[in-house]
Every structure is written in C-alpha cells, then in structure tokens.
Known about the structure:
The chain is built from 15 helices and 23 strands. By secondary structure, the chain is of the alpha+beta class. A hairpin with a 6-residue loop joins strand 4 and strand 5.
Amino acid sequence: MSLIMKQASAQDSLKPIVALAKRRGFIYPGSELYGGFANTYSFGPYGVELKKNIKDLWWKTFIQERRDMVGLDGPILLHPKTWQASGHMEGFNDALIDCKACKARFRCDHLIEEALGLDADGMALEKMTALVNEKKVKCPKCGAEDFTDARNFNLMFSTHMSKTGHEGDAAYLRPETAQAIFLDFKNVLDTMRVKIPFGIGQIGKAFRNEITPGNFIFRVIEFEQMEIEYFIREKDWEELFKQWLASMHDWCDLIGLKKSRIHEKEHEKEKLSHYSKRTVDLVYDFPFGTSELYGLAYRTDFDLKRHAEHSGYPIECLDLDTKEKYTPHVLEPTFGVERTLLALLCDAYEEEQLENGEMRTVMHFSPRIAPVKAAIFPLMKKEPLTEKAKSIFDSLKNLWNCEYDESGAIGKRYRRQDELGTPFCITVDFDTLEDDTVTLRDRDSMQQERVPANQLIEILNKKLY
Ligand code: ATP
C-alpha cells in the first residue's frame, strides 16, 4: 500500500471517532472558519472537561499523593542557551525531502520505509538521498521520480523578542517541558525540603513543527505534556526504572485503558536519543496501528551537566554521608495529554447492537474521567417536574460536573448522554412527586433503579470512584 493510501486508510479507521468528537463537542478542527489550519485542534466543551479530568487526576496521582514529588510551572520561552545545552539546536531534526514536481513534502525516513521496506530511522542524509535516487522512489502523491536532496529541518518553532528584531534575538517555543524543570532544579533543591530521590512534575504546552500523517490529535504541532523528572543516585537507576514503569501501567489502569491494548516497546540501543541510556515506550493499539502513548527514559546526568557547563554554575547535591558533591541522574516518565485523550476516545468507543435491533453509540469512559458525571432530566418539560429536576441538579452541581436537560424525547436524551459517556442519568417522573424517588440509569447496562432523591449524593459518591 502506498504512503498516501496508508494515510487515507489510517484516517478512515479513525473516522467514527473524529465524527463523534466533532458532533458531540469534544474536538473541533483548528481555525475551521478560515478553512482549517493543519494539525491544530480546538477542544470543545466536553473535550476541555475530559482534558481537565486527565490533568487533575495525573496531578493528584503523581504530585499530591506522593511525598517524594513537587510541582512546577515553568515558562514556555526559556533562555535560548537552554536549547544549545540540551542538544535540541543541533539534533532535534526531522529529515525532510520534497517532490520537485508537485512540491509535496515528506519525512524521508517514512518515504523510504514505505517504498522500500527499509528502516531508515536515524540514517545519514546522504545515504537517504542516494537511496531515493538509486532505487527510483516515486512520489506517493504524483508518481514523479524527482526529489530534492534530503535535509534536516529543526522541529523547534522560533519567534523573536521585540527588543531589536535582530536574528540573534530568536527565542524558541519549548519542544518539551522537561528543560524548564532542569533549569529550576537548583531552586527547588534550595527552597524546598526535598532529598534525593525526589521528582519535579509539570503539566504544560510544548510545540513541535512536525510533518504529520494526519492521525487526528495523535501528532499535533501544539500539545500538552505531563512530565516528571525524577532525580536519583546513579546506582539506583535500574530498580527505580522498574518502579516507574509499573507506576505508568498503574496510571493506564486508573484512567480505564484496556490492559490488553497497552504494550512495552524497548528502544534499540543504537536508536536511543542522545541523552538516553535506556528508553521504554508504552505503546497503545490505536485503530491506525500500535504507536507511542508514553515514554520512560533514563536521561543519566546529561541535562544537569550540560546546563552546568553552558551556564557556568555548578548544579550539584551534597552526599550527607560522604560529604562529596555529585550530579544527580534522572529518570523521565513522560505523558502526552492529547495522546491520552485519543487513546481514551478509541478505548471507550462502542457501537452496540441492542436487543430490539437498534444501534446505540456509547462511550464507556471510566467515571473518574467522564466529562459529565450525571445528567438530570424531568420526564417532560412540565411543572412541577422541571422544578424538582432543577433542584436536584442544584444539589449536585457543586460536587460534580452535571447537566440538566429538559428538551426532546427521553430516549433521545439518554442516547445523547451515552455518546458523551455520562455514567448516570437521573430522571424525575410523576412518581417522584408522590414518594420522592427518582430513576437512576446506568450507562453501560442501561438498567434503571429507583432510588430516594435525598440519597443521590451518597449513592453517586460510591458509584463514581
Ligand atoms: P514520537 O516518536 O511519536 O514523535 P517522541 O518520542 O518524540 O514521540 P517524546 O519526545 O518522548 O515523544 O515526548 C513525550 C510525549 O509527548 C510522547 O510520549 C507523546 O505522548 C507526547 N508527544 C510527543 N510529540 C507529540 C505530538 N507531536 N503531538 C502530540 N503528542 C506528542
């Protein structure tokens, strides 16, 4: 299958999810009003709730509930020397190649892989160009055999500080949140009561000027990372690596991803990033193929040493037993917010055939993550049903994100909430006016039970966690 056909079928495999995400206000294409802006997306009212729930739960799990972790919110624009020290200036590149006939641009390693079945990841530029020419690789878009030489394209977005407008005033939007943590390692060490081993966690935006094959929000140019830099003694790295890998699997469980769809992928030694001595990715079976969800890297003492060299300030800890100074080593568990969200959408999505032959689309989000926890309906848009339903909504709204909906047939209102993944629907009917009970409908089983309205908080508290 050609690269273009592969990309098209990958997009087809995501079609129902992309359509639901748009239809139900999870994710809209970026700048749609102006015909779109490649690889950017807006998160609609339910998407933003989902994202917030992911980030809040991550923060609670990895920062709030651990005694060895603290948080940070560093700037997106860091001193430009940061990127020289980190190696991004020199090495954070994709090899790109252009078709001279139709001007289409490709990742050269992807082009070679698709056309020749060879793994070209990390191959030298000259070798790639030679291969494309010798083997007469065709442009997947127009069929021409006329490519430019392969050349490196730095993935960092640059911008200018307004002082003089000179070239030398270029600043870069961070391509990873990690470096902001390294820059403040010493500040945290000096101002907090932390002792090695400890970690600093951060959630924030990162930017990468990537050519993407269009797998929806899998690879975007602006995304959020939830990253941890965990500072350790060198001798402890193997044991702590195992522990972090286990914690990352626990996280996948906590957010409700199916265990059977998550696998570990060890990076080959020759292909490790310049800073890493070991990297294991957690990969997920997306509809378009198994691809990286999260990563765990042992970054050694590379970053802290480089920043010490480039800044001229030592970045060291004191060993209280030996009284010797040393540079801590670092483990980095990293989690992309958009990829988490995409995995959750794929994992939760089901088109279910009901006993009566009808189909329903349902999102089986874990209640911890679901954007709306409960929807409250009056059976009909009629007083005093509406007044009672509104009063129930008011009693729940400060505890959970709930919805009140009074319009349309009750069946349609249930279906809408199924597509949003709302775990519970509460309906006020004429019996409620007699005995103060309501129906509580479970999204997955669609079973309804009658429960006292004044016990809803207690009941939901048990069911939602
Ligand atoms: P890939 O190999 O897919 O390009 P990477 O190995 O470069 O990813 P890292 O640099 O390890 O990714 O980034 C950490 C995490 O950030 C990834 O595991 C992923 O969840 C997320 N991420 C990276 N690049 C993107 C992107 N362009 N769009 C969305 N999320 C991303």
